[in-house]
Design a protein that fits this description.
76% helix, Ferritin, two-stranded antiparallel sheet, mainly alpha, globular
Length: 160
């Protein structure tokens, strides 16, 4: 499993849109790791991992011809929020690689990620300047809500 390694310096060289795409890939890798570590729930985690890959691809596919530097107005919090979420996801990837992880623990971690400010409050924190980017954020928020529903349903099933 490939682990993305980044530092605040190379983070500052990337545009917010690129960081959001990278974060989706990191989340996908975490979920793929869960699929590998929890064989009885492999299909469940692989499906969600693939959806995260699709989110990352959406950034690439929908940003063609758009001035990425102007696509999202940065706020004073945007980079620190992206960094916080990325740090958490990468930390969870390392934890999952080094030790056994239960399905319940993986579900709780995934819920924390999906409910994060990055995905739930993107219009408050990341202000899209482009209609295509706004539409992408709406789609991603809808997909995130679906992920939360799927995870909550699975959590209820696993808890009983």
């Amino acid at each position: 499993m490939c682990v993305s390694v980044w530092t605040p310096n190379n983070m500052n060289n990337k545009l917010i849109v690129q960081l959001l795409e990278e974060n989706e890939l990191n989340i996908s890798q975490l979920y793929a790791l869960y699929a590998h570590k929890i064989p009885t729930k492999k299909t469940f985690w692989e499906r969600i991992s693939q959806e995260e890959i699709a989110h990352a691809a959406s950034f690439q596919n929908n940003m063609l011809g758009i001035d990425l530097a102007q696509s999202i107005k940065e706020t004073r919090f945007s980079r620190s929020i992206v960094q916080y979420v990325m740090d958490f996801v990468l930390q969870e990837k390392q934890r999952a690689q080094k030790s056994n992880i239960s399905h319940l623990d993986a579900l709780q971690t995934a819920l924390r990620i999906e409910r994060s400010m990055l995905e739930k409050k993107c219009f408050d924190i990341f202000i899209p300047n482009d209609t295509t980017v706004k539409e992408l954020f709406i789609k991603m928020n809808n997909d995130t809500e679906k992920h939360i529903e799927i995870l909550m349903k699975e959590l209820k099933k696993s808890s009983t």
